[in-house]
Write a structure and sequence with these properties.
heterodimer, A: 0% helix, globular, B: mainly beta, 6-stranded mixed beta sheet, 5-stranded antiparallel beta sheet
Chain lengths: 115, 113
């Protein structure tokens, strides 16, 4: 079956521009997570959705970052006024229920480069 | 602050050899611990999930151990293969914020022929 799909796989943008990153979770997975990973580091939590609502957005670094999941499936991470420090790989993961023992299934990420 | 530390930062071994990766955490209260394998350019893939009451779990050539008293975990890889070359990430969640997983920085393993 299809796994978690993220598009685009690579995105290059200029400082100050707006970008949208898309995540298609595994069908039927109610929980969806966004992470940011810098080179040589582990993923850093950004936001967690349970269904359509953001259950925990404590990882969003500032108000330039926003994410939505309007129909409880596809999610979009939106970054306004991008900065060079936003350059990283943005990973999306989904899990079947969001229960503590439910494994996370990751996409291959979107590599964002801000020039 | 909840933290997860891993050692070594990187490791090079010859094909067929065994190795052990370490994870120390300060996350409290503890809920579960996961080990993930991340190939270059790919997302992490779950290897094992361990709860407080479990102290060992195997998945093929991978065996994870957990000592919740000392807050340490290890991942042992037996008879390594070239395809084991990847980053191995330890992830811990606390029971008060179970959906906020704390990721370690990973150990970069290189298996050479």
């Amino acid at each position: 079956g299809a796994g978690v799909s993220q598009t685009p796989s690579n995105k290059v943008t200029e400082k100050g521009k707006y970008v949208e990153l898309r995540c298609d979770p595994i069908s039927g997975h109610t929980a969806l997570y966004w992470y940011r990973q810098s080179l040589g580091q582990g993923p850093e939590f950004l936001i967690y959705f349970q269904g359509t609502g953001a259950a925990d957005d404590s990882g969003l670094p500032n108000d330039r970052f926003f994410a939505v999941r309007p129909e409880g499936s596809v999610s979009t991470l939106k970054i306004q006024r991008t900065e060079r420090g936003d350059s990283a790989v943005y990973l999306c993961a989904s899990s079947k229920s969001g229960q503590l023992d439910s494994p996370l299934h990751f996409g291959n990420g979107t590599r964002l480069t801000v020039t | 602050k909840n933290q997860v530390e891993q050692s070594p930062q990187s490791l090079i071994i010859l094909e067929g050899k065994n190795c052990t990766l370490q994870c120390n955490y300060t996350v409290s209260p503890f809920s579960n611990l996961r080990w993930y394998k991340q190939d270059t350019g790919r997302g992490p893939v779950s290897l094992t999930i361990m709860t407080f009451s479990e102290n060992t779990k195997s998945n093929g050539r991978y065996t994870a151990t957990l000592d919740a008293d000392t807050k340490q975990s290890s991942l042992h890889i037996t008879a390594s293969q070239l395809s084991d070359s990847a980053s191995y990430i330890c992830v811990v969640s606390d029971s008060t914020r179970g959906q906020n997983f704390v990721f370690g920085p990973g150990t970069r393993l290189s298996v050479l022929p």
